[in-house]
Amino acid sequence: MGAFRNILLIDDDEDDQEIFLAALRHVSASVSVIAERNAGVALDKLAARLLAPDLIFLDLNMPGMNGQQFLSAIKKGIELKDIPVIIYSTSSQSSMIIHTKEMGAAGYITKPDTVDDLIEILSTYL
């Protein structure tokens, strides 16, 4: 991966967002993060160029548009398909990991139990 400056986190769980943001602050002070709770809204904002992330972290299990639907939609869009998407999910099923990578995900993180574990994982991506 490269030097990412603008990150979009799409996750409907506020606690998970807070943990992610806290871990990210430890990894890099120079990164800007926008968190969206709704994948459909995030997709609309991306399409309208209201968001311009270098990297997207995407939860899979969300109401409305889920992570797989978002990933499928973003990889079909000419302007959006090159944005790397890292799946950030509680699911650790190997079939889901393989499937999302086949769909175009650049990586897959199973949500860890501690902030320290997440800091370690994020530091490998940033």
Q: Sum up the overall morphology in one term.
A: globular
**Main sheet attributes: strand count, strand direction, barrel closure:** 5 strands, parallel
User: Per CATH, which architecture?
Assistant: 3-Layer(aba) Sandwich
Number of strands: 5
By CATH, the topology is: Rossmann fold
N- to C-terminal separation?
7 Å
Rg calculated over all Cα atoms = 13 Å
> What percent strand?
15-25%
Question: SS-based structural class?
Answer: alpha/beta
Count of discrete alpha- or pi-helical segments spanning 4 or more residues: 5
Total of domains? 1
Strand order of the largest sheet: 2-1-3-4-5
**Helix and strand run:** EHEHEHEHEH
Written account of the structure:
With 126 residues, the chain is an alpha/beta fold. The protein has one domain (6-125): Rossmann fold (3-Layer(aba) Sandwich). Helices cover 42% and strands 18% of the residues. Strands 2-1-3-4-5 form a five-stranded parallel sheet. Strand 3, helix 3 (67-76) and strand 4 form a beta-alpha-beta unit. Helix 1 packs across helix 5 (115-125). It is globular. The N and C termini lie close together (7 Å). The model has no long low-confidence stretch (mean pLDDT 93).
